[in-house]
Write a structure and sequence with these properties.
264 residues, alpha/beta, Rossmann fold, 7-stranded mixed β-sheet, two-stranded antiparallel ribbon, 9 strands, 32% helix
Length: 264
């Protein structure tokens, strides 16, 4: 075979591989009809008849550990929390694939690797109190709740927030409080926080979140960049209150929605 023919074959195989990867990533979304109306079942139960234990172990081993997440607390949480109870039933068989999924009303549940990575970036421990902005289905809050003392989570879409609160309670995550409101304003009454995680992309880092962060604390947040993309940022406040911002990896999140009055 001529070198030119070999090159053509390599290029063809590469194109097919890229198409396969893209299709595999977006396949669950292709089954969604009416993303704005799809909402998860209101109550999930741990005794659903499907425990997916081996799927969770494989998810942690091949998707998370293999890509560099090493915090044992995070790995245990990812192996313990039943992600299949936080996704719509029609996607349940894909629950432990490394994909985000639509959860309705224009929102998504993040892929497992990103959940694990952001949790590790927070650097939290058992005595910490964490604020989450963007409750969604409640999965990230559930993961955090197995590691920290208390999780306060804010969801601006009332229907999602109410359902997440019910789901978390039914599954026994009793150290999570859910609030309906504008997460960019934080939760002043419960501040300061040891760490803050934002699960939607902001145009800029909201100042109230920095103000509500403890000295020595950390914010992990996706932020829009100048190239129509997003970067995952780590914001650290030192013992004197000085703030340092570090850019890590490119990501893709739904936009952070702002401007709604808080509801308890």
């Amino acid at each position: 075979m001529l070198i030119a023919d070999k090159m053509k074959l390599v290029i063809f195989v590469s194109i097919i591989f890229v198409i396969f990867c893209v299709f595999n990533y977006f396949f669950p979304f292709l089954h969604n009809r009416g993303m704005n109306s799809l909402v998860l079942p209101k109550v999930a139960h741990a005794d659903s008849g499907e425990d997916f234990v081996m799927e969770r172990k494989n998810m942690v081993k091949y998707q998370i550990v293999a890509r560099g997440v090493i915090d044992s607390k995070v790995l245990k949480a990812m192996e313990t929390v039943p992600r299949h109870l936080f996704v719509p039933e029609e996607f349940r068989r894909f629950s432990y694939h490394d994909n985000p999924f639509p959860i309705g009303l224009g929102q998504t549940i993040s892929q497992p690797y990103i959940v694990a990575l952001m949790t590790e970036m927070l650097g939290v421990d058992s005595d910490d109190v964490v604020l989450e902005v963007g409750t969604g289905s409640g999965y990230q809050a559930a993961v955090l709740s197995t590691i920290v003392r208390k999780v306060y989570t804010i969801e601006i879409i009332e229907e999602l927030g109410v359902q997440a609160a019910e789901r978390l309670k039914s599954l026994g995550y009793d150290n999570v409080d859910v609030k309906i409101g504008d997460g960019s304003l934080g939760w002043p009454d419960k501040s300061p926080f040891d760490a803050i995680i934002v699960t939607a992309a902001a145009g800029k880092i909201p100042e109230p979140l920095i103000q509500q962060l403890k000295h020595g604390g950390r914010v992990v947040i996706p932020v829009d960049n100048f190239y129509l993309g997003q970067d995952l940022m780590i914001v650290e406040k030192d013992a004197e209150g000085k703030v340092d911002i570090k850019k890590t990896i490119p990501v893709r999140f739904v936009p952070l929605v702002e401007g709604k009055d808080d509801k308890q």
